[in-house]
Write a structure and sequence with these properties.
6-stranded mixed sheet, SH3 type barrels, globular, mainly beta
């Protein structure tokens, strides 16, 4: 049985995954019929600050890849966000005295999120003796002086410079490379002030009020140091101490719990050389494209099946552009509705792998909204993998039975050895029974989902991932969120 983990963001653990009730006909029509009404969000966020996350990023005159270049920005440059979601994938930004447009893929928005707006101190570490403090967040910046190993400074703006932190230094402000400064937040005694990791990368960036992280190992051993206020008892796993070393083989995943003051508070999902596949019904963006994109990027999926997708609308919406990530930039779309006034609706995939042999099969939908099965092939580690995506009808089990049968027939006839199906199935668990002979179902009633505090949470099987039996399911997690009326589901997989 899979020891799966349910993740949460902030205080959102209290939200349960609600099944759609056919008896609530009017509510269902409003919530699910893509062509009826625009959707609104419970909480949209105004972005204010972004950090350039790559070198030589173009700031353009217009929100287009063909727009003339105003200037090029270095990694770590702080930009003021003037307008977000321009043409679905651009930020209008200000950097110094210059204004222009930058692709959202190259702008981290952590500094704009409330959970990152805290007071921090920074301690010099990871050096033999000292480190340079510079006037600008660049190796070309003027040297203001040196900071010795172990020195602690007040941080003026944490995460304000990506690869650099701004600090108070000798009565002025300066910048220290993030590689040599361990940040600690000013917090109370029931949360961590910092997490230090070597041998891997933590995503998202640490914040005391972000309780779940993906730790991507870059080597066989990973060290974790969990830091809290002086005198607070911290334990990583069952070690009873705040530091731990983990050995992880290629193609493996581990769930690590961290307790603060005797209470499990944080979860880290350690992975090394695994295939991360997700599925999410994004409710047509739900007026939260920036936060949907941030949440997806933080999970570092290799492939994500997306349902309820708008593209090319006259209002400029393109949900795939809004949620694709720096890690997964390829897109594939399958149309089910084309609007006379412009725009299309359907399902899609984003991926880090180049899509090949895209196919769309219309499913039996009777007089209801048209449904389809999308197929995209990817070459992953030399293996050809068929990834399917779908969104079944909600109106009746009898209609879904036909759709299940059609999809099963297509997948069984597929000559590719490895097969994955993602989707919003609108189904009870018993309706998946036809797949159990040749496939593994990730989300079943027997699958154990936990929150960050290691407490069991029940889940429905509406949103699911199904894989051929030559694919091992190492772990899986779902993330309660207000950014849609569905929770994203992620599975860590290994191709046998």
């Amino acid at each position: 049985m899979i020891d799966t983990t349910l993740a949460a963001t902030g205080d959102e653990l209290k939200r349960g995954l609600m099944r759609k009730r056919i008896t609530l006909v009017l509510m269902i029509l409003i919530a699910l019929c893509a062509s009826v009404l625009p959707v609104s969000s419970a909480r949209a966020l105004t972005l204010t600050t972004g950090i350039i996350n790559a070198d030589d990023v173009a700031m353009r005159k217009t929100a287009s890849a063909g727009g003339g270049v105003v200037t090029r920005l270095d990694e770590g440059t702080v930009v003021k966000i003037l307008e977000s979601n321009v043409n679905a994938e651009w930020y209008k930004v200000e950097a110094g005295t210059r204004t222009g447009y930058v692709s959202r893929l190259y702008v981290d928005i952590d500094a704009s999120l409330p959970s990152y707006q805290m007071d921090y101190t920074g301690t010099i570490y990871n050096v033999n003796q000292d480190v340079n403090v510079r006037a600008e967040p660049s190796l070309k910046g003027k040297k203001l002086g040196k900071a010795n190993k172990g020195d602690t400074f007040k941080v003026v703006q944490a995460y304000a410079n990506g690869a650099w932190h701004q600090i108070e230094f000798n009565g002025a402000v300066g910048y220290v490379s993030a590689n040599y400064m361990l940040l600690k937040a000013t917090v109370n005694n029931d949360v961590l002030s910092s997490i230090e990791v070597t041998g891997g990368t933590l995503s998202p960036a640490f914040s005391p009020s972000e309780y779940g992280y993906v730790l991507t190992a870059t080597q066989g051993e990973v060290d974790i140091n969990a830091i809290a206020n002086s005198g607070v008892r911290v334990s990583i796993g069952n070690t009873g101490i705040p530091t731990a070393k983990y050995t992880i083989k290629s193609g493996n995943s581990k769930t690590i719990r961290i307790s603060v003051g005797g209470v499990v508070k944080y979860s880290i999902y350690l992975v090394r050389d695994v295939l991360t596949v997700g599925t999410w019904n994004i409710k047509r963006g739900n007026d939260n494209p920036e936060l949907q994109g941030w949440l997806i990027a933080a999970q570092r999926p290799d492939i994500l099946g997306v349902q309820e997708v708008y593209i090319n609308t006259k209002e400029g919406k393109n949900n795939l552009l809004s949620v694709r990530t720096k890690n997964a930039q390829y897109m594939a779309f399958a149309e089910t509705i084309k609007y006379p006034s412009g725009g299309q609706y359907g399902i899609g995939q984003i991926s880090k792998f180049k899509p090949e042999n895209e196919q769309v099969t219309l499913l039996t939908s009777e007089t209801k909204e048209q449904r389809c099965l999308q197929k995209v092939e990817y070459v992953i580690d030399g293996k050809r993998v068929s990834v399917y995506n779908t969104h079944f009808s909600y109106e009746s089990a009898s209609l879904r039975k036909k759709q299940f049968a059609e999809v099963l027939k297509i997948m069984n006839a597929d000559k590719n050895e490895y097969k994955i199906l993602t989707g919003d199935f609108n189904a009870e668990e018993s309706e998946f029974s036809s797949f159990t002979r040749n496939y593994r179902i990730v989300n079943t009633s027997a699958t154990k989902f936990y929150n960050y505090s290691n407490k069991r949470i029940s889940m429905s099987q509406i949103d699911n991932i199904i894989v051929s039996k030559n694919i091992t399911v190492l772990n899986a997690r779902a993330i309660p969120t207000k950014y849609s009326d569905h929770y994203p589901l992620f599975a860590f997989l290994s191709l046998d």
